[in-house]
Amino acid sequence: MSETKVQPTHLRRAAVVYVRQSSAAQVEQNRESTRRQYDLTERARQLGWRADQITVVDEDLGLSGATTQGRGGFARMTAQVALGHVGILLGLEVSRLARNNADWYRLLDLCGMTDTLIGDADGVYDPNVFNDRLILGLKGTMSEAELHVLHARLDGGIRNKAARGELLVWGERDGEIRLHPDEAVSGAVRSVFERFAEFGSVRRVWLWFVSEKLTFPLRLNHGDAIRWIPPSYHAIHQVLTNPAYAGAYTYGKSRLERVVDENGVARKRVRRVPRSEWPVLITDHHPGYIDWPTYEDNLARIAANTRPRPHAAGSGAVREGSALLQGIATCGHCGRRLYVHYLGRRASPGYHCPGKNIVQGRGVYCLNIGGVQIDRAVSEAVLDAAQPAGLEAALGAAERIEADHDGALEQWRLAVERARYEAERAERRYRAVEPENRLVARGLETEWEQRLSDLEQARSELERRERRRPRELTADERQAVLALGMDLPRVWDAPTTTARDKKELLRTLLEEVIVAAPRGGQTAHLTLRWRGGMLTELDIDRPRTRQARVRTDEDTLELVRRLARHYPDAVIAGILSSQGKKTAYGHPFTALHVGNLRRRWHHALDRR
């Protein structure tokens, strides 16, 4: 029956054998199926095609048939069918050619228009014959349905297992998830959370790892060997935002979607879904490095750093500027968070609120005030309130310095142990090889030498850091620290106390500073809202927002008047410099300065 459908017009064209497996694992493991597909070339010869007319298209091995995207072999085969160069298409079954009806019926239409036969393990079909096309259509529908059933069955099993919290298991017993047994790995992860609790910024945690030259564990897939590499910002951020480190079990945090791009091509993308749409979230499922409330607080802090809320006080990470109330100052007129600006050659801080410009469309600020006097008044209030705790804070600071160094030293001690183990393992591998196998022995000897070099570098770095480790305070030094704690203003004004340190202290004690300064008034009213709910109100003289005008002295102006009648600007600048004249800001005169001076004071005169 099949042979009667093969006509001389078909035999004059090529026979194409299409070979496909859905994944690389199937290509590797299901070799019998691949062999059966290649054997279809013998089927083509039995139907009457010569060996030189048979083409095997196997470019799509390891690719899914659910879509034509990325299947170059299928596209090339379809193009040959459309050109009328193919007499028959051979596939082990319909699912090898296409797994969805859109692609399958498009191919059927092309085969019908070009009188191309389709063959599988059951027989040969002519798409122009109604019964054959009906059978091919049913096979395509069953192939698509089979793919849906397989996906639904696998997805249902995965979701059912995930709902019990047993999908991902790292332990010896069923459903057990344990912290990593490697002390170096767990110590590195624990340091991330400890440093974030101290710094409050993902970037600062990352910079701390970089400054201490610490490495971080990396393992791409479960079961792979751990590699120690310099940490990236993404790695630190992923640890802090992954709920698994907080003892929670989750499933369905992302979703695979199919979209059509601007070129009309269907593509897949991964979309992260909000927590309210996660199918599975089991808190306190296994031991974690932090508890769930701390994890949620960390997420809120990270979100405030990356996307500061416009009306919330205390939002955003601490910056490097000298404005001490950055992030906690709010407008006393409209309640919005104040923005920071810097003016003048000394970059004096100031605060402004563009509330009226936003709400009423006016080109004025709701509030615009200098920040020097305001920062000073708030600092004095905070220091007065913190004076009773000055002694405890001073000793706590000394202990914090020692703890920070101890944390980094512990990581380096574990790094030395890890390097020693790697060196000993390389030595054992080298000594276990047969001496006659020189090719392998030379490679293992090189690896052993490299591990010994790494061990020596780790030891040297550990010794250097131990020498720099702050020693414990003696009795006299402790008394000196206690005396210093009695004088917090002197510590506050010390050159070694940075603006970042001052901001951290202010945020520790203050929730918000409300600034009200009526336009045209002479005073500014400050309301300090402390953590705990107490309020303190202060009235200060309104700071000047404009600097006094700087003016060139009259003698220099008179000299420029006389010289401008006879000389160009460059010559005048040379004369002024030879006489030791300086600009209003103390710089030597240039032609540009002279020109600006003439235009500013209207001294431009006609020259001969």
Structure report:
There is one protein chain. The protein is of the alpha/beta class and 608 residues long. It has four domains: 158 residues, Rossmann fold; 90 residues, no CATH class; 183 residues, no CATH class; 47 residues, no CATH class. 48% of the residues lie in helices and 14% in strands. The strands form six sheets. The protein has a five-stranded mixed β-sheet, sandwiched between helices. Strand 16 and strand 17 form a beta hairpin. The longest helix has 43 residues. The radius of gyration is 38 Å and the shape is elongated. The termini are far apart.
Distance between the termini: 112 Å
> Largest sheet at a glance?
5 strands, mixed
Would you count the extended β strands for me? Answer: 18
Number of helices: 23
Secondary-structure-based class equals alpha/beta
Mean pLDDT across the residues is 76
Which regions are unreliable across 5 or more consecutive residues at pLDDT < 50? 310-314, 603-608
Describe this structure in a few short sentences.
The protein has 608 residues and is of the alpha/beta class.
Question: Which tags fit this structure?
Answer:
608 residues; 4-stranded mixed β-sheet; 48% helix; 23 helices; single chain; alpha/beta; 18 strands; 14% strand; Rossmann fold; disordered C terminus; 5-stranded mixed β-sheet
